[in-house]
Design goal:
alpha/beta, 12 strands, 42% helix, binds pyridoxal-5'-phosphate
């Protein structure tokens, strides 16, 4: 093929392709039937992440959506509810799975501009023990959230709130390693004040597939049943777990590079006069109300650059493993050309 265009794809950090070294690790993985609990590589991934997060047990799943769903199904039953921010992934971007499949009612509460739900609003939304109401069981937070980092103090405050009301606390940590790297904290400090956490291997960490749910041994045993029920019991999934293990070893510290490039991108776009909204991690947003999104998108496409315009009020640019310094230059040049 001639002149195949290489996109610089900033839509999401999910678009990364496995590196040669990762493919090699996958090829060499020892495998067994994981539904029988006999896949050594899946087990190794689960124990590795359990150790890193200070949790007793872990469960490998195909996707973050499934991992969060299994967490909700395990924490809550029919007629129970969980509280989450209005813009939380578990509430807004997972097809309402907990309600659809579990009879679990979501109770969304306002999000703060700096990310996360307003905890006073969450406290006010907790229902009294009265048969008129759904039973509030769970608080669900997200870190990072739209690229924003929830500081440790916020997470501890959420945990106290949950404990004071006999609720469990689940952390949707799809990009938790981005938060840990941005805060320069070991990940286990961020998982200490939560009961359960879901972590994606297929976002910034660059694995092709996979998420892991972590919690107490008893919780994970109950979650194993829901994973099977939701069709997530895989067989020789060590092939996939090997990619995750490789990512944990080689792709965590380098997330700092993604954050640095996002900062450089934000600086350059600001200089060019774009309405930039920064985050401390790998996402940069443009205020869609003050740019012509369609025009910008098609001009960038001419220069081989893609961004995410699913939510036209916030155009999103995400740096990741497959965006190097040269790509960044191409992106900045593309925005220079696209200026009205
Ligand atoms: C991507 C994401 C998920 C779900 O992950 P999938 O693997 O795409 O299903 C959950 N929560 C957050 C915050 C995410 O960004």
């Amino acid at each position: 093929m001639t002149a195949q265009r290489e996109w610089v794809d900033l839509r999401s950090d999910t678009v990364t392709r496995p590196t040669e070294a990762m493919r090699l690790a996958m090829q060499q993985a020892s495998v067994g039937d994981d539904v029988y609990g006999e896949d050594p590589t899946v087990r190794q991934l689960e124990t590795t992440l359990a150790r890193m997060t200070g949790k007793q047990a872990a469960l490998f799943m195909p996707s973050g959506t499934q991992s969060n769903l299994v967490a909700l199904l395990t924490h809550c039953g029919r007629g129970d509810e969980y509280i989450a921010a209005q813009d939380a992934h578990t509430y807004r971007y997972e097809g309402g799975g907990a309600a659809v499949l579990g009879g679990i009612q979501p109770q969304p509460v306002p999000a703060r501009p700096e990310g996360g739900m307003d905890l006073a609003a969450a406290a006010a939304a907790i229902k009294p023990d009265d048969f008129h109401f759904a039973r509030t069981r769970l608080l669900c937070i997200e870190n990072t959230t739209h690229g924003q980092v929830l500081p440790l103090e916020y997470m501890q405050a959420a945990y106290s709130l949950a404990q004071n009301h006999d609720l469990a606390l689940h952390l949707d940590g799809a990009r938790l390693f981005n938060a840990a790297v941005a805060l320069d904290l070991p990940v286990r400090q961020l998982t200490e004040p939560v009961d359960t956490v879901s972590i994606c291997l297929s976002k910034g960490l660059g694995a092709p597939v996979g998420s892991v749910l972590l919690g107490s041994a008893q919780f994970i045993e109950r979650a194993r049943r829901w994973r099977k029920v939701t069709g997530g019991g895989l067989r020789q999934s060590g092939l996939l777990a090997a990619a995750g293990l490789h990512a944990l070893e080689h792709h965590v510290a380098r997330l700092a590079e993604d954050h640095q490039r996002a900062r450089q991108l934000a600086d350059a776009l600001e200089q060019l006069g774009y309405p930039v909204q920064r985050t401390p991690t790998n996402m940069v947003f443009l205020d869609g109300s003050s740019v012509d999104a369609d025009r910008l998108q098609s001009s960038l496409a001419q220069s081989g650059v893609r961004l995410d315009a699913d939510e036209p009020e916030h155009l999103r640019l995400v740096t990741h493993l497959d965006v190097d310094d040269e790509d960044l230059e191409q992106v900045i040049q593309a925005f220079r050309t696209a200026r009205p």
